[in-house]
Specification:
Two copies of one chain form a homodimer. Chain A is of the alpha+beta class. Helices cover about 20% and strands about 25% of the residues of chain A. In chain A, a hairpin with a 7-residue loop joins strand 25 (about 430-440) and strand 26 (about 445-455). The interface between A and B is large, with 66 and 66 residues.
């Protein structure tokens, strides 16, 4: 779908809040979500516009969609957004977007002037409890930010931060799907076996009994996720040229991590309980259609870096496979909240476009062995970090002060909060808030909403 | 549930094939499965008896279950076996087992002499196409055989085969749920990036371009899986004393592995595409009730090994947390099949009972960080290998010949097949067959059926 009239910055909606310049949700965005209402059995699909939520189920019942209404009706039988994803939405989505845009345009009276339909179809964002936007049958997490991989690698291997495979193969692992929660859900600090103190002699570690208790190194990870559309049959790879027709849209992801648990458990099979206690996602899926004006060339690899293997290479993907998206991390401690202090910005970066692999490459790689991707699967980027000290997407990196003499790590450098508190890792009561948005001259700002979660103390033993 | 009249070896069924001494499925077993029939929309739950399949849906409709019939009817609304698992089955299951046992006893005329009901409720095993026995929302694979961990470790780290964490923490990782298939499904050889040749200099590896193509080191992994019952809420661990009330039953698992892909991709986040192309499971869930007579003490750790941390320790689990189960791996190549040669036994072991961690410990560890286990989740043991050369549960180990001078690996020692062929890893057309059974004097043999899969050539590029 090329840039078209649905991206026109002059387009205004009769939902006035959608016309405010700083809204995340102008008529040019229209992200999808699943939500619950007290009076409903199962959550319908919503589309966000300004500070309102448009109920697709009500609109479908009112027959405003014509031909695609039948597709939407079929899709509604079970979980509706999954039902849309399972269909070849590259066909349905542009028409659905056009139609929604038309219905919400300032000059279209159909819904605007139908008080009864409008009042049942359009509800306040505050009324809804947001759910995971799909059933998320499977969750995969990648490691696509080379800045993140290099910084973290330098903590464990000062002389050899990047492993030999990194520039050849997108590194990823299967995450835990069951513990993915929507923004706003409280996060219980995990208990677990904890690594011995930093940098012990290997001999000492081998005989030491590890501790078990609440994690002392709880961290967030700033990531971007994308939802899989139709997916593939088991045994049938997805060629790179078709990859984007399987990407429904994007959301923000906080892949909460317990670093002390991770450090102790992760060898040789990778992260497990250090991550599986919770992953928070923003509840709105910003569609690829809405992101169209913000497509940019894939990361330009430095001279000397290997060219991606043919199965991961397409000229079109190289030309516009990345997305120019700004990401922010904010934190508000319990003390800050109590004293009325606003959340503080911990990091801000524009590095999602500089991932070492594009979303299409990650998806094609994932299916290259024949693994069947399913509608509603979530694939996440891994921590998105930029090269600068204030662009790092997790506390593990932000409070890292590099290595000193003999490659030994220096003590961590705590962050100062406006309340006078300091943080090396997260404390109970801390709320972490991610924001994401696309901006470009000549286009409306497209926002992702928030990905928010507050840390609760560990459960009693 | 203690050993009771349902385990009585003298008990005979009017289904004559169930009384044959070598059957996997005597009246004392009664494993559950989901299957498809051409005339049905969705697969009903079946119970295997001899060479027959008893349809629970038909029996429920006929009202033979009394009080628990209501529970079964509720459970049948969606996917029935998942519906049973989600309920507190420690209450339902013993009653269901008793009732099924009663209905199938040689001296009970109710079903035996009701020709009409019997002919609709009891079908031939051959008629059914077996499905995954649950929806398997999540799949986790452990690494609980210390013999396997030690042998594989010695390939990569001859001086330090076991990592320091191994004896303290059950090592596991999230597997891919979507690509789990039922026994009998053909397996497409995966393509992927392949590791450079064995034991290259690290410098060489860093600059070398990896290959991409069909895996040359395709392997099976002999594992045992267990299905989760009710599960826990996010944030609420499952104490070790309650762990077994969350284990519904067991099956055989073949966690197919592409070793060349694995070797290249697995650092630092663990196995990914090397495993996610397919996992085969036997379709019958052998219940914990049926396995009761075969419970044995947990593996007795050698002097000097650490005692499990308190959250993983229960006297009851130590006393009878393991299961005495014999496992076999058979192989039949295409040539063998063409020449009428029977499958050949590759390995046989009784080492499942000697896993370093019991199923209860694995489950409790998994939920110890608050991770929510869901009904129908599959947890697998990891490759089950014994200490002996013919007890190894994968070709990676079976054809390994140890290390020679300077810690360098010796060439692999191919297996000889009756057809005159040799195998280091699997060839196209090879069929791998796992069998599992419990035997004990004074009890009927309880079998697991087969876990079978044939290797198809890689797809065209």
């Amino acid at each position: 779908m090329p840039v078209n009239e649905t991206h026109d910055p002059g387009l205004r909606s009769w939902v006035e809040s959608a016309n405010e310049p700083q809204t995340d949700f102008p008529i040019q965005n229209l992200p999808f979500c699943q939500f619950d209402l007290p009076q409903l059995d199962h959550g319908p699909v919503g589309v966000v516009i300004g500070d309102r939520l448009l109920r697709l189920d009500v609109l479908v019942a009112a027959g405003v969609f014509g031909e695609i209404g039948d597709t939407l009706k079929e899709a509604a039988v079970e979980h509706m957004l999954d039902g849309i994803m399972i269909r070849p939405f590259s066909d349905v989505m542009p028409r659905l977007r056009s139609r929604l845009c038309e219905l919400l345009r300032a000059d279209n009276p159909l819904l605007r002037d139908n008080t009864s339909l409008r009042s049942s179809a359009l509800i306040s964002l505050d009324e809804a409890k947001f759910l995971r936007p799909s059933l998320i049958p499977n969750y995969t997490d990648f490691y696509a930010s080379i800045h993140h991989a290099r910084t973290v690698g330098s903590m464990f291997r000062p002389d050899n931060p990047l492993l030999p495979n990194y520039k050849h193969i997108p590194i990823g692992y299967h995450g835990r799907a069951s513990s993915i929660v929507a923004s706003g859900t409280d996060i219980r600090r995990p208990r677990g076996q904890q690594s011995p103190p930093e940098d012990p002699a290997a001999e000492r570690r081998a005989t030491q009994t590890p501790g078990f208790g609440p994690s002392k190194m709880l961290d967030y990870e700033l990531e971007v996720g994308f939802f899989v559309g139709p997916g593939n049959e088991l045994g049938r790879p997805i060629p790179i040229g078709e990859a984007e027709s399987h990407i429904f849209g994007l959301c923000l992801v906080n892949d909460w991590s317990a670093r002390d648990i991770q450090k102790w458990e992760y060898q040789p099979l990778g992260p497990f309980l250090a991550k599986s206690f919770a992953t928070t996602i923003s509840p709105f899926i910003v569609t690829m259609e809405a992101l169209e004006p913000f497509r940019v060339p894939a990361f330009r690899r430095p001279e000397g870096d290997p060219r991606p293997l043919p199965y991961l290479w397409s000229d079109a993907d190289q030309a516009r496979g990345a997305i120019d998206l700004t990401l922010e991390v904010w934190l508000q401690s319990e003390q800050m909240r109590a004293r009325g202090l606003s959340p503080v910005l911990l990091s801000k970066s524009n590095s999602f476009k500089d991932l070492y692999w594009t979303p299409a490459q990650l998806l094609t790689h994932h299916a290259s062995n024949g693994c069947n991707l399913q509608p509603g699967d979530l694939l996440a980027s891994g921590t998105v970090s930029g090269p600068g000290a204030t662009e790092r997407g997790c506390l593990l990196e932000l409070t890292w002060d590099g290595t000193g003499e003999g490659g030994k790590p220096r003590p961590r450098k705590p962050l100062q909060l406006p309340s006078g508190e300091t943080r090396t890792f997260l404390a109970d009561g801390d709320e972490v808030i991610f924001k994401g948005y696309c901006e470009r001259d000549g286009f409306r700002r497209i926002g992702f909403g928030e990905c928010r979660g507050r840390v609760l103390p560990a459960s009693a033993e």
